[in-house]
Design goal:
The complex is a heterodimer of chains A (190) and B (173). By secondary structure, chain A is α+β, with helices and mostly antiparallel strands. Chain A is built from 4 helices and 8 strands. With 173 residues, chain B is α+β, with helices and mostly antiparallel strands. Helix content of chain B is 19%, strand content 30%. Chain B has 3 helices and 8 strands, in the order αβββββββααβ. A 5-stranded antiparallel beta sheet of chain B has the order 1-2-3-6-7. In chain B, a hairpin with a 6-residue loop joins strand 4 and strand 5. Classes of the chains: A alpha+beta (190), B alpha+beta (173). At the A-B interface, strand 5, strand 6, strand 7 and strand 8 of A face loops of B.
C-alpha cells in the first residue's frame, strides 16, 4: 500500500512515431519528480503508444508535470490522457509465491483477414473467464490477400477444463477458416 | 533448373507433417536441384524445406554460406536428430513468415542422420548456425512454425518494423 500523500496516475499517450518521444515524456515525469512504477510502450501502425503508471509525492509536482504535458500537447507531439488511480486500483506487485492460481497459455490465430476475428476469440475466452494478459494483432500482406495474425497470452483459471477450451477454440478456428494453435506457456519451477 | 514459388503462411501445406521419402528417383533429385536454385535465388535464406515450395516430403536443403561462397551445401532427406546439446536462444526469421522474427531456443550442437538425394545415409556433426538451421528446417517438415516455439509473446515474437521516419519529423533534441 502506498502512503496516502502519494498521487498515483495512469498516463496514456499516442502520437506519430518519431525519435525522442520517450525521452520527452520521461523528461516531463522526471522534472516533476515523478516515479515510473510500470510502463509499456509499442509502435503501432506508424503511431507510438505509451502507457505509464506514475506516482508523484505532492500536488505541486503533479501541477508541474501537467504544465509540461500541456506544452507537449501544444507542440502536437502526442495526445496525453491522464487519470488518477483510486487506492483500490493500485496494481498488485508480482506475487513471490511459486504456487500459481492459473495456467499460462498462448493462443495463436492466423488466416485471411475478415471482420470480427479478435472479437470472436476474445468472446470465446471470456466465456471461460480467461484473463487476457497480452495481445499482438497485425495485418500483413499475404499471397492471396491480407493476412491477420493474432496472438493472445492469457491466464487460464485452474478450474477450466483445458480439453474443452482447446476444442472450443479449434472449432471456432475451423468455422472461420483460421489456423489456431494453443499451447501451454507454464514455466517449470525448479 | 527452376526457381520455385515460396509459399507463405497461412498456406495449409505448411501445417502438414511430411511423410518420409520412400523412393530416391529422378523426380526427387530434380526437386532438390530446384530447391537449391530457389534458395540461392536471392531469398536471403540459408535453408529451404520442401513444404515451403509446396512439396509435402521430408527434404530440405541448406547452405550457411549461401550469401558468400556457396560452398557448404547440404541436402537432407528423412533427417533425424540423433543427439543434441543444451539450448540457446537464437533470433530466427522465415521465408514463409517474412513479417516476423522469433526468439527460439535451439540446441547448439547436434548429430543428425539424413539421406542424400541418391539414398546414401550421411551423418553430420553440426554446431551453431548449421545446427539451428537443421532444427528450423526439420520443424517445417513436422508442420511446426516459429510461432509454435516462442516462450513469451512480449519478448520472443517480433514484428519486423521499419523505424525510418520522415526527416521533417526529426526533433532537434
Amino acid at each position: 500500500m502506498m502512503p496516502s500523500s502519494l498521487i498515483k496516475l495512469v498516463i496514456s499517450t499516442v502520437g506519430k512515431d518519431r525519435p525522442g518521444l520517450v525521452a520527452r515524456m520521461c523528461e516531463a515525469i522526471s522534472n516533476a519528480h515523478g516515479n515510473i512504477d510500470d510502463s509499456t510502450m509499442t509502435r503501432l501502425g506508424g503511431q507510438f503508444s505509451m502507457i505509464y503508471i506514475v506516482h508523484f509525492n505532492s500536488p505541486d509536482n503533479l501541477e508541474r508535470f501537467k504544465i509540461a504535458i500541456a506544452q507537449i500537447e501544444e507542440e502536437g507531439l502526442f495526445h496525453v490522457d491522464i487519470r488518477s488511480l483510486a487506492p483500490d486500483e493500485e496494481p498488485d506487485l508480482p506475487e513471490t509465491t511459486t504456487r500459481s492460481k492459473s495456467h499460462k497459455y498462448l493462443l495463436s490465430v492466423g488466416g485471411y483477414d475478415r471482420t470480427g476475428i479478435t472479437y470472436a476469440f476474445s468472446k470465446a475466452l471470456a466465456a471461460f473467464h480467461i484473463n487476457i494478459t497480452d495481445v499482438h494483432a497485425h495485418r500483413i500482406n499475404g499471397e492471396d490477400g491480407i493476412v491477420y495474425m493474432l496472438a493472445i497470452e492469457m491466464d487460464v483459471p485452474l478450474n477450466v477444463d483445458e480439453a474443452e477450451m482447446k476444442a472450443n477454440l479449434e472449432a471456432l478456428g475451423k468455422e472461420l477458416n483460421l489456423d489456431v494453435r494453443l499451447r501451454s506457456m507454464d514455466a517449470i519451477i525448479l | 533448373m527452376t526457381v520455385l514459388k515460396i509459399l507463405k503462411y497461412p498456406h495449409p501445406i505448411l501445417r502438414i507433417p511430411c511423410p518420409d521419402v520412400l523412393v530416391f528417383d529422378r523426380a526427387l533429385q530434380d526437386l532438390v536441384v530446384d530447391m537449391v536454385e530457389t534458395m540461392y535465388h536471392g531469398t536471403g535464406a540459408v535453408g529451404l524445406a520442401a513444404p515451403q515450395v509446396g512439396q509435402s516430403v521430408r527434404v530440405f536443403v541448406m547452405d550457411t554460406n549461401a550469401f558468400t561462397t556457396r560452398d557448404n551445401l547440404k541436402v537432407m532427406v528423412n533427417p533425424k536428430i540423433i543427439t543434441s546439446s543444451r539450448n540457446k536462444t537464437m533470433r530466427e526469421g522465415c521465408l514463409s513468415f517474412p513479417d516476423y522474427l522469433a526468439n527460439v531456443k535451439r540446441s547448439q550442437r547436434i548429430t543428425v542422420e539424413a539421406f542424400d538425394a541418391y539414398g546414401v545415409l550421411q551423418t553430420y556433426e553440426l554446431k551453431h548456425l548449421e545446427a539451428v538451421c537443421v532444427q528450423h528446417e526439420i520443424d517445417h517438415l513436422d508442420g511446426i512454425l516459429m510461432m509454435d516455439r516462442i516462450e513469451s509473446l512480449k519478448t520472443d515474437w517480433l514484428r519486423r518494423q521499419s523505424t525510418q521516419v520522415d526527416p521533417d519529423d526529426l526533433q532537434s533534441d
